[in-house]
Predict the 3D structure of the following.
Amino acid sequence: MIGLENFVTHTLHGIQYGFVLFLIASGLTIVLGILDVLNLAHGELFALGAYVGFSIIGYLTGLVAPPTTLSTQLVFLGIVLLGAIATAAVLVPVGVFLETTFFRPIYERDEVYQIVLTFALLLIIKDVNKFIWGPSPLRLQDAYGGINSIPLMSLVGLTYPTYNVVIILLGLVTVAALFWFFNRTKTGRIIRATAINREMATAIGVNTSRTFTLVFALGAFFAGFAGALALPPRFASLDMGANPLVLSFVVIVIGGLGSLRGAFVAALLVGVLSRWAIWQYPPAELAAPFAIMAIVLLVRPEGLFGTWGEVA
Amino acid sequence: MTERSRPGLVSHNGETRIRVMKGLELTKRQAVLVLVGLLFAFAIPDLALMTPSLQLTVVHQGLLFGLAAVGLNLLLRHTRLVSFGHAAFFGTGAYTTAVLAAKYDVSSFTVLLVAAVVVATLVAGIIGYLSLRHTGLYFSLLTLAFGQLLYALVQGQSFFGSSDGLPVRPGEARQPLVFGLALDPEAYAVVLYYLTIVILVVSLLVMWRLVKSPFGNALDAIGQDRTRAQFIGIPVRRYVWTAFVISGIYGGVAGALYAMVQQHVRPGPVLYFLRSGDILFMAILGGFQTLLGPLVGGVILVFLQDVGRDVTAYFDALTGFALLVIVFGLPRGLVGSLRSGGLLSGAGRDFREDPTVITVWVSNGLASLIRSVREWISDVRSALGVR
């Protein structure tokens, strides 16, 4: 049944899903565009973010009583967001460690070794998660319920989880911050310059190895942030990394390699269209993003905004 | 048949070689190795009866995944394209067989195999057409995405049995008929194994001919420099596409045999992208610069996985560490390192001559370890901006 309210709800779901996808895919596309490495372990960084978020957000929300009044609800929301940012911060040293230890020695090697290396890291990080948090799925029920108790959407007469609205708003802020970072700050411009021409960047005095570490850490940061934000409505499980990883590939292909703007448009497109597909025809859920990808590839093989090396 | 191409003994520069077919000549040592390998392969069913640690199905599976890896290697070794979606073709072969046997009551081994080849050719043709417009990482990414598309399609459709998969020939007659014969289960397993060996030998010979042919040389040229290959008149797109389809057919044949051996197909083991990773890993493990390496890698990996899953719950991490060792320490793979007679045999000779050499190795090892830790620390410091 296509009612207006249903339509709005599913579209909002799609936008929220799209923002989470963008957070994951942005890290992957930055790493791919600048380091020239297809990081298969990126999905596991997302999963790691969810697990770390489970511990940190769970600990922080455990310190306070369940929110009842509006002011305590807002404090609660602040605590959850703080937890998410702390989680993302934990992923930064992890990213620095991975880049300096494993990636740095193989930049000059054959592609196949790079892919096999990241595949190895995927397997290892997955088992590290299993070792620390155990094989059974984990859930943060309190955080989700606590934030949803904020009566935001009932103001406009729509039953929609407040948490999803928070994600959409956070996504908007993050997108704005990313574009500002790459277009307006000096570091962002240095990163773009390095992506366009590595040797030239070295010649004008850019420390490229430091830039690479920074970029990888940035990617890990956003993967962790996305993991922590995606956690409350769902379970943290060992295989949660695979699907977002492959969907971010789809997003990158649709948007065009190395284009942040493309990744943004593509993530929203995939998010909204796949939610509509689930709503109208549930079995299409898994295949919908790939169908979009195939169409885009046929019409525009280079993706919507794709050119090598350009980041924003 | 001319004199030059007849099988027999030939001599080059005073060295006697055994000619198997045109273009394929083995030294005595190689010929002995091949014979021993073949004998061993044919003896596996008997050996499996004697020792419980060696299971026929495990070796059989290893050989089949190895065959898929041999196919993948055509792309990897010669055109330098890293496909991360080869499970797609393995799965296509397996599912074609399962669907035809379970839904349309096709019972002949030969028909099932041919059908699997046809469908795998079609699927590889389409995926290849779409993903070969790009090279490098973009190609890997596209093959992975298309592989997952097939996985998603199969997983989502009840026609394919969703995540439970399909049994091959349910009911009374559980197995396909081999050349019109209905065999009892044990005989079926052994006969199918021998058939696999025969198909494997033929596939390897075909691959050998292929890579030594002008077509194979052209693929090498494309792998070295695409633009140059284009300029000297090689139809790059068409050749690479053909190579892609051939490599997909190898995967399809392996998948069809897999379905007939396992008699049940699930999307997880045959289509999931981790499977593609496994197939790629097999090629690297055995040595992707060799013809036989991927096959050896396949048998070893499947065997280790089978043993490893019983030993530890963290088997994936173990595989990961093995991969790290291969990437950093043994980049030519097992067969590649053996053939070049490199590090290991030299080290063994040194050790036999003078056992004290081991102290030199230890001190060298420690020194390089300390050096790399130092480098690592300075890298981290520079990354964090600490002077």
